[in-house]
Design brief:
With 74 residues, the protein is an all-alpha fold. It has 1 helix and no strands. It is 32% helix and 0% strand.
Length: 74
């Protein structure tokens, strides 16, 4: 069941990438209404500005039990 959901998700992502690629080749904007970034006053890079730490997301390629002390032999 999980493999089926994963396959559906991967197909959706592939279709979205294909649509974005085709739109880019046709000269259409790939990102509709992109956010306006003001580069006139960037924050300093001297360490005086602290940025929030991004949350850690679970990855399907990382074993969550690998870092634990007790390894179970399977």
């Amino acid at each position: 069941m999980y493999a089926h959901q994963e396959e559906m998700n991967n197909q959706y992502l592939d279709d979205r990438q294909r649509r974005m690629h085709d739109a880019w080749h046709l000269g259409q904007p790939v990102v509709s209404d992109p956010p306006i970034v003001d580069y006139s006053t960037p924050p300093p890079y001297d360490g005086s500005v602290t940025y929030p730490t991004p949350p850690l997301h679970h990855s399907q390629w990382v074993d969550p039990h690998k870092g634990k002390g007790s390894q179970q032999a399977g």
